[in-house]
Structure formats: structure tokens, C-alpha cells
Amino acid sequence: MKRPYPTQLMTNFLLRRLVQMIPLLIGISILSFLIVKATPGDQTMVYIDPNKPPPSVEDMARLRAQLGLDQPLPIQYVRWLGSALQGDLGFSLSGRRAVLTEITDRLPATFLLGFTSLLIALVLALPIGIFSAVKRYSFMDYVITVISFIGLSVPGFFLALLLMQIFAVQLRLLPTTGMRDAREDYEGLAAIVDVARHLALPAIALGTASLARWVRYERSSILDVLSQDYIRTARAKGLREDRVLRIHALRNALLPMVTLIGLSIPGLVSGSFIIEFVFGWPGMGLLAVNAALRRDFPVIMGVTMLSAVFIVIGNFVADILYHWVDPRIRYE
Amino acid sequence: MTTKSLYRRILLLAVLLAAFVFVLPTGAQDDAFECPTTGGTLITAIGADPVSLNGIYANDGASVSILSYVFNPLTLGGENWGTQIDGDLAESWEVSEDGLTWTFHLRQGVLFHDGEELTANDVVYTFNTIQTAEEDIAPFRPRFMQGGEPIQFEAADDYTVVATLTEPNASFFTDISVPIVPQHVLEGQDLREGPFNREPVGTGPFKVVEWSTGEQIVLEANPDYFRGAPCLERIIFRIIPDEQAQVNALLTGELDYLPNVPGASLAQFDGSPDYSVTIADTDSLYQMFFNLEREQFQDPQIRQALMMAIDRQALVDTVRQGLGSVHNSHFDSVVPFYDQDRQSGYDYDPEAAGALLDELGITDTDGDGFRDIEGEPWVINLVTFTEGFRDYLDYAQVVQAYWEDIGIDVELETRDLGTLVEQLYQERTVDKEYDVHTSGWGQIGPEPNSYANFYMWTDDLGPNMSNYRNEEINSMFEDARRLTDPAERMAIYEQIEAILWEELPTIPLYRQSQAVVSSSRFDFEAAELDLSIGTNFRRPERIFEAAE
Amino acid sequence: MNNGEGVVRIQQNAASAQESPWRMTWRHFRRHKLAFYSLILLLFLSLIAIFANQLAPYDPNDIDPRNTDVRRGFPGAPNVEHPLGTDDFNRDLLSRGLYGLRISLAVGSLAMLIGISVGIVVGAVSGYAGGMVDNVLMRIVDIFLSVPSFILFLALNAILTPSIWNVIFIIGMFSWMDIARLVRAEFLALRERDFVMAARAIGVSPAEMIWRHLLPNAAAPIVVAATLAIPAAILSESALSFVGLGVPPPDASLGSMLQDAKSWLVTAWWMWITPGVLISLIVLAFNFVGDGLRDALDPMLYRR
């Protein structure tokens, strides 16, 4: 089946969506801003340790004034927006660095982890899902189901600790935490291997968590397709079984895959806090949650907007992919 | 004698004198320590990145752990600087008769990590910055003020610092126990946003060479350290947020040292030849705070009953697996007059507690199983931190169980740290939103005046979270601070201690002990473990890796 | 015959006029042995959860304060008095497990209901109506996906006191987006089918279109989504309790029981066995039930 070239309708659609992104992102930023401001506590709480005498009232008031926290909300928002549009995301009080630096520092680690776990899930889910659909109700189907559910059947932090306990502590096969070895300074290939060894457990923990979901959708969707009319028509025509499967079923079975990949893209940027926390992986998830707990407003806004951009673009791309995979899907 | 032999005598005398001066250790130069081995890397872990490594601003746990290796204070014994009251950069000091003038003599030849020598100007600069700098908040500022005005500091010469007080203050010595920063580096930088926060320069035994956010902080030995070059070559702090992950890393050898291994995991290290385990007491205190503005807590007998209802030893066992001690004072155990057995009277006795409440007329009048006050159901709103912040949530649940056991309806409410900080710790109002709160502190130090803030009433409120108002206590604290004779001072503090014990504005529960576990490869004997210091050791430069 | 499933369905129904679609679905479901037994298991678990009060031998939060014989601070191994052991606070794990089961199932089902309802409505309307409506609704999905839900939850907990209802609400309100997108995708595909065009030509109203014709055909992925949503919600609650925002202590869900077991992984296995096994059973059971339902609802599967 040849893909039709984008029609004028499609181009209009693309342009319209692109243009809508701006007000959408602005809307998200305003909402996020309001949510953060509604939470008790502000950036200055970083100076207060409940176990030590707090700073004086004047000092705190002065600091608030310097940070612009005594201004009315709309002004605070506009100031943030103004700087942000110029590329200045502000200064992180809990990290003592520019927010942009904080983010760019952590992003590669999160991306690496997210991408690897996505790969693991993808590579495993397709064959498992197909097998599960074709050999439905067989013993192997059940076994595979149970195994693929190990990732999903217990909370993430527990799976992470279990994996760490088995593979790192008991078997000493892999390191427990971190992204790199502390004692040795590896270079070149050795460095890559080192990171790969540190990456293994967190990626498996993260990947298997989504694996089960992917397998189920995959299986469901293949079963769906297998029973469609045109498959039966093709079978009736006498085409070979696996050709039937490959050509027709796979194409349409890709649809939920596309959705799921699309849904996972923002995760590549926002990271998984729990996995990063347990494995000490220096990523965006940790950054975001710590910023939230410390009310580090510029970091929260920076991370949120970064995520938002990816979500909006991700959904946009997913919509395009839908059309590409199934041209019958049209947008008005 | 001949002129020649006279000259020879004088020469001999001069040579002897010179030898005397150069060979004899100068006043505070301690017994020289020979490193049995040199080199090696010690790897430990902290739970989060430090906020800043600027010694005069950073106050959070992670920062303090690290900057104690990087900086030295003028004097020891203040917050985070141990239980010994002594000089560090100050070699000797004098106080004038009237107690208003303090003179400190600095060690000479102390070098910063960039090679410049430490002088009195750096000390004065440090203190002045704490007092006046506007771009950041110095948590120690109140300690450098008197009557709202900054204390005068002056550099009389390169190695002498003179402080002029407006009224005598015996705790002044430990109040100024803060890291000294180099003027030539910090001056001209923006304190809040400048590079010093991440690249500090100090005089300490180690210097920061790498800070990889979220991963680790690497310290390297400072060979010019004034107490002698460190035996270790490097100390690395890995950032591992999860406590269990830290324990696991210690088990696999990825870490060499952890100062606070949870009691639950201790069994895995105890008895193993690969690890040495030390249980050390700490300068800490965990309490229950009453909101004394609430009517229900006005009567001290109610507070006493509530204390008797708690089995404090069982609480320590439950929450810390026994790694702690029941605490019988409102001052930490490191103050000179602390006596574990002096104060008593609140042993666990639920029957007596119940009887006391019955006497006061607080009984179950409506038959719902819980006591009522004046016909109204009595509900205690117990506010604590959410999971993960020290042991507060744990012991709050235990206290709830004990109070419910004597028929009190306790509503446990958890709030996250930021919310609590805003609502309870920052709010300068008398009307705070809680009935009872779990709170505490640590590493405050041996100077009793450091605890005054928690129990004194001031108009701008502050750490006295209970809003405890007692004129007598207020004036006693102030008197004790002004006196110079230690015996007189301690006598007053003991009286304060007794009154607080009687009145119970707060219920002291326990102080924690920590299980310090390290790889047997390292020897910490000479380093002198002291958990009240940020580094955990009085002489961190003496840690060495034992020869194979 | 080649006009699509709608026509086939009508034929089917006409042929077996005695049997209602529900009966037929049930019959097909029962063929799926594993699904059938899983359903039984879930019913059993729900039953014991409902009767937790009566079944639990002890108060789940009781630390037994006056008992001085017990070794405080360390979990007690299973014994006659406590068949599943006790935790480090000396609370009976069997009782805690029962109540935890109840809390987890409640949180899971209620959060799922919120999420599925909102998700189906948004997805169906969006997918069927297309155009401007679709656009606006999908942008709302983007908004929900982007705003910092963690902070919103912190704010919510600060303004209202932390409670299990906050937890259910938050999990529900932030789980509908995935369902919506999936339903929408199905509807977008279904919309172009012949039988839909035919029905539209006849003049069937949009509501009827969605309810009677489109939804049943999209039922398969929705059912899968719903059955996975319950365990997902249970796991979300556990993730929230990891950061201290789950069910407020001293009550515990299965997730927070696992959280408590963290420090005792090696030294007190009984602390995580109970919640671990229960959660896994729930997840697997819901999955098999979902498979069974999905297969049973798909009329085409049983034509062969």
C-alpha cells in the first residue's frame, strides 16, 4: 500500500498544530506557576533546618525581596517568562548554579537510562507479544505472561532493591549504585563498559516495569488484527500464514506501539524518580523531586517546561505517525 | 675570660636559643603524628548534594560533612564543631577582666589551599561578612550580634584578632566557631551566585577538586595542612540518596565507611572481619513539643501525665533498634553538667498516667473509649514529618500508640518538610497550627547557652516553638550568659534544667547513637571519632589505610 | 457479509436469539481457565478485604505497648500467635495484610473508576468528533501530562489534611490521559469503517453511535486498559508512599508495607512476603481476567 503524499489538509493540520503549541506552552507555564505558588513554602526554606535555630525575620524578608518573592504574582510570572524566553531560566538556590546548567548536567544521564530501558522494553515486547498472541492459552503463553509481569507486579522501588540485592550484593556481578566507578578513572572503551555495567540494573528495573504493559497491548492488538476481515480474506486467498502475519498484522499492530512510544518520549526527559533515587542515578527525576521538596521554584519551572515541550512535541509526532501508519486516520 | 671565649659563649647561647625556638614545638602544635602509611582513598556516601560549600553559609547536613574537611574555624566547640572547647586556628586567647574584650592569637604559617597565608584580616573578613553581607543569609548571624548590633572585630596585627563586646558573654568563644574563609578569594564575588559555593578554598586538611552533581565530590589531601599532611590521598563522597542502597554499597566494597548504618542492617556487618563497627553516642535530642498556646496543655500535670505514658526505652528500641539512649534533660548530653541519672520521676507508668488524668477530671464521659475534657472529646493533633526525615514519623507513631493506650484520641498528621517549615518554623506567630509536634536537633555543642533559644521567650519568637513563656527562665539564661565563672554558670544552668524538667514545655525522649561501620582496611584510631564534628573525627588527617 | 462487524453482529444476535450477549460473553470467558480462576481469586481477595475487620486477629496498628517481653525494633518471625510474623513495630502482619489489602483494592478500584470514566469520555468524544473538539481535548491532555502533579499533590495535602481520598483523587486525575489517548486512537480508526459511515448515513445520533456501535468495538483495548488500571493505581499509590505522600500512616496499604520492609529485605523476609505476594497475585489475576474478558468480548474470535 503506497503512502499518499501529505494532502493540503494535512499540511494545514501540521501548521495549525505547530502554531497552537505556543499558547499551549504558555498556558501550561501559567498553570504550573500557580500550582507551585499555591504550595506552602518557598525557595528560602533551603536556609531553614528544623533542627537548628532559624535565621532572623529581617534576613528572610530581605532575601525574599531580593529574589522578588514579595512582588505580586503576575509580576513574578512575567519576570520569569521574560528571562526564560531569553534563555535564562534563573538561579537554583539549592544547587547554587544556573538552572540551565543543572538541567543540562542531568539530562544526558536521564536520557541514557530512559532510552536504554525503552529499547529493552521494545525489543522484548514485540516478540513476546506476538508469541503470546499466536500461541494463545498455551503453557508458554502463561509462563511468559508471568515473567513479563515481574516488572509490573511489584512496586518499582522494591524491584530495584531486589535486583540490587541479587545481582550486586549477592552475586557481585554488577555495581550497586551510581553511573561510574569511584575508585578507578576509566577511559575510552573501559569507560563505556563501566557506564554500561552501572546502567544495567536501573535500565532493567525501569524497562521491565513498562514491559508488561507493552506486551499486553501488543498481544491484544495482534489478536484484534488477526480476526479482522481482510486477514481472513487473505487466508482464504491462500497466502502463507506467516506472510499474512507479517505483512498485514504487523503494520496494524504497530498502532498501539506508536502510542506507547509516543507516551514514553516525555519519560526520556523527566526520568523516573524512584529508580534514580534507589540506584543513585544522577538524573532529572531526582532533580525534579528534590526541587519540589525544597521548593526551588526556578528549577521546578525549568524542568516542568522542558517536560512540557517534549510532551507537546511528542504527542504531535505521535499524531503524525498515526496517520503514517494508518492512512485511513484523518484529521480534520 | 677572654673576649674570644665570651663571643663563643654568646654564640653558643644564641645557637642553643635558636635550636630551642625551632625544635621545640610551638604552643599548640600537637604531638606530631607519623602516618604509618600514606596514600589511599576513602569512599563514603551522603544522601544528597550539598547546597553550598561556602563555609559561612552552608548549614545542611551534606554541606557540613564536607566543609569540615575543607575549612578550619577560629575556635572549636560550637555548632557542628565538636564537643571540645578549644582553639583551632586560634593558638591562644585572653579575655579582659570585664569580659568585654577578647583577644585571639592566630597560628602562624597556616596556608590556604591556594598557597596564601591566613591572617587576622581573613578572620575579620569572615565575621564581618556573616554580620553584614546582603546577598545571602548567614545562618550564624545572630551569634555575631549583640543587642541588635554587630560585635566589633578588628585585626590588631597580622595574627591578632580583637573582639569588643557590649556586655560579657561567656558563650562568645563557641558562638564564633565558624569556618574561616579567605578574603582574597571571596571578596568581590557574589556570595549567593559566585563560584566559591562550588569551589571553596580553605585551610583544612583536604581540598575540593571535583564536584560532579548527583554523583560525587572528590577531596584531595592538602600537604601543607598545619597539623601535618594527611595520611590519605583522597576522600570521595558518593551521592546515594537511598539508605538501603548505601548499606548495599558498603557490603560490596563500593563504600569504605558509613557513619549511620541503620540498626536493621547492622547484623550484616557485626562480627565480620571485613568491617569494624563502633557504636557512638551523639549530641542530639529528640522531643515532643507542646503548643503551649493551646488550652489543653496549660496544666503542667497534663504534660507530665503524657510523659509518663510513654515507655521511652521501648521507643528507642522500636525506632532505632536500641541505637540510642533515653535522655533526661532538656540540654544535650554534651553539656558539662549533664547527668544521666540526676533527673527522674517520669518512668513509664501508664496506670499512674491514667490515674493522674482521672484526677484532673479528664475521663471518658461519652463512652466512646477516649477521654474527654469538660465534656468535649479530647483529640490531640500530632503533627510530624513525612517519611524519610530522620526518625520523626516512626517515633510519632509510637507515641501515638502509647497515648492511645491510656485513652487519648490522637490524630496523626504528616506534612512534608517544606510545608512544616513554612507553617511551624518560619511563621512568627504565636498561634501555630499544631497540638503536639515531633522535633529535635543535633550537634549543637557543649555550650549551654546554645540551647537558650529553644526555651527562651523573645518577641520575634524563633526556635522556641512551644511558645514557652517563663520570665524566670528567661532571666536565668541571660544571667548565666553574662557571668564568667564556669562554676557559677553551670549552677544556674542546672537550676534551669530542673525547672524545665518540672514544667515540661517539651518532652525529651532520647538521643541517638550511631553505628559507625567501616572497612577493616582503614584505621581510625588516631583520628579520634567524634560525631559532633562534621567530619566525624577530631583529627581526620590521621586516618590511614592499613598496610596489606 | 463483507460490510464489517456491525452487520455480522446483527446476524450473530439473530442466530442465537435465546442467548443474550452477556451470557455468551460469560460462556466464552469461562473457557479461558486461567481467567476464570483469577476472577475467583479476585472475588475471594475482595471478600476477605471487605471482612477484614472480622477476619483480622489483631488491630493492625496495635504495637501492644504494655507487653515487655517482645523484642522491640525487630520484626518477629512467624509463630503460633502471629502466623505471618510481626513487623518492627510489633504489629501483626496478618492483620496488617488484610487491612492493607482492603486499602489497596479500594484505592485501586476507585482511582481506576475515576481514571477510566474520564478517560473514556474524553477519548471517545475526541476520537469521534474530531476537528476542533478533538484538538481542544487533546491539548487538555497535554496540559494534564505537563503540569507538575507531584507539587499539585503537595499543595493538595497541605491545604486539605492528607487522607486516603486525596490519594485516590490524585491518582485518578492523573491516570486518565493514557486511557483517553488509547480510546481516541481506536475511535479514530473505527470512525472510517464502513459500518460507521453506513450508520451515519442512516442518521444515527452521535451519542448512540458512540455508546452502541463504537464503544463495543473498542471494548477490547478499553477492557485491557481498565483491568491494568487497577494494579497500576495500586502501584502508583506505592510510589507515592515512597515519597511520603501515600496513604497516611499508621494505616498501611500493601505498597507502604513493602516500603516498611525495605530495610529488612535480607534479615526479615516475612515482612515483604505478605505484601509482595498479595500485590503480585492481584496484578497477575487482573491481567488474566483482562485477557479473558478481552477475548470473550471479541465476537470474531469465536467464529473459528
How would you portray this structure in words?
Chain A starts with 7 loop residues before the first helix and ends in a 7-residue tail after the last helix. With 332 residues, chain A is mostly helical. The mean pLDDT of chain A is 82. In chain A, helix 6 crosses helix 7. In chain A, strands 1-2 form a two-stranded antiparallel sheet. Helices cover 73% and strands 1% of the residues of chain A. The radius of gyration of chain A is 24 Å and the shape is globular. In chain B, the strands form 6 sheets. In chain B, strands 11, 12, 13, 14, 17, 18, 19 and 20 form an 8-stranded mixed sheet that branches. In chain B, strands 1-10-9-8 form a 4-stranded mixed sheet, covered by helices on one side. Chain B is α+β, with helices and mostly antiparallel strands and 548 residues long. Chain B has 14 helices and 22 strands. Chain B is globular and about 105 Å long. With 304 residues, chain C is mainly α. In chain C, helix 5 packs antiparallel against helix 6 (131-146), helix 5 runs parallel beside helix 13 (270-297) and helix 11 packs parallel to helix 12 (254-261). The longest helix of chain C is centred in the middle third of the chain and has 37 residues, at 93-129. Chain C is elongated, with a radius of gyration of 23 Å. The two termini of chain C are 15 Å apart. The mean pLDDT of chain C is 84. Chains in contact: A-B, A-C, B-C. The interface between A and C is large, with 66 and 64 residues.
